[in-house]
Amino acid sequence: MFSIPVIVNSVGLSLDIIGVILLFFCGLPPEGVSRTGASHLTWGIDSRAREKGKRFAFLSWVALVLLVTGFGLQILSSFISSP
Fold it and tell me: What is the spatial distance between Cα 17 and Cα 24, in angstroms, rounded to a whole number?
């Protein structure tokens, strides 16, 4: 039905799409909050803002891993010979 290179390529494309969507929503820190959670709008660091900054930083790394893995799978699919 489907050859292995097509399946590997499709999985790679799917991971790329998920990674791009994550980067779109989590790639930049929330407005007024740095990656460390420091707020540019207030004097102190709000604990919720700090947690949100940490969560965004973690999700942006997850997105980058998904993108690199997806591209790797796409490259791998071009070297796999179909039966």
Answer: 10
Q: Summarize pLDDT for 42-68 with one digit per residue, the tens.
A: 566 677 877 887 888 899 899 999 999
- The phi and psi torsions of 11 (rounded to 5 degrees) equal -65, -40
Give the CA count within 13 Å in the CB-facing half-sphere of 24. 6
Task: Sort 83 into a burial class: Cβ within 10 Å, 0-12 / 13-18 / 19+.
Answer: exposed
Domain ranges of the chain: 4-79
Contacts of 76 (CB under 8 A, 6+ apart): 8, 12
